Amino acid sequence: MRIIITTFCLIMTFVISGAVHINAAAGNSREMELQESLDHSITDTLETLFVNKSYEIQDADELMADFCAGFCAGQNSNADITVNLIGANYDEGLVFIEVIADFSYQNNNKGKVRCRKAVLLEEEI
Fold first, then answer.
1. Which pick of 37, 58, 62, 117 has the fewest CB atoms within 10 Å?
2. Is 51 inside any structural domain?
3. Strand intervals (E) in the chain
4. Signal peptide position in this chain (predicted)?
């Protein structure tokens, strides 16, 4: 009987430590995915505006629409995403964006990841 109880406690310890590890890894991987997608999409948007000049972006609304299209294409998670434009100067290529991802862990606890990015793209003459 002692061996059965010891084995059960050992198995429960492994299960609980595994669940803690999965939850910690989930938050870190979502933050990394959010940061990478934010970096790529904002850089692509500003390159479209200044370098490639494939089409004109007239105001901040068009800039955000282009950014959001690229950002959403780079997301693989099932989080609720909120994009806040903190500030933008599209004439100078200066953009401040905050992205917030609300998600649920596997044990139904709520998590939130927040990333901010400021980018200045300088045009070479």
1. 58
2. yes
3. 80-89, 94-104, 110-120
4. 1-24
Say if 100 falls within a structural domain: yes
**Phi and psi of 55, rounded to 5°?**
-160, 160
Model confidence pLDDT, tens digit, residues 89-113: 767 767 788 989 888 877 788 888 8
Q: What is the pTM of this model?
A: 0.69
CA dihedral 115, 123, 51, 57 (to 10 degrees): 70
User: Does residue 125 belong to any structural domain of this protein?
Assistant: no
57 Cβ neighbours under 8 A, 6+ residues apart: 45, 48, 49, 63, 66, 90
- Amino acid letter at 51? V
* Contact in structure between 30 and 111 (CB atoms under 8 Å): yes
